[in-house]
Amino acid sequence: MAQVEGLIKVLAESLVEHPDQVEVNEIERENALIVELKVASSDVGKVIGKQGKIARAIRALAKAKGNKMGRKVVVEIIT
Fold it and tell me: Can you tell me the distance from the alpha carbon of 79 to that of 75, in angstroms, rounded to the nearest whole number?
């Protein structure tokens, strides 16, 4: 499932001012793949976006990639 992790890392790094502080971790569960996204505290707003639009878009892309692979994907933004 490194494809999902790579996708989210590339998206997040392109959005933030401190791409070196972007961390993406995958947690395999029985029924889902949980992807944790950590960014610098000053970049959290950029990843979430106005009214959560960017966060929803990231989650939608990850979900689409997961569906293609036959897995449920959940993206959690860690602050």
Answer: 13
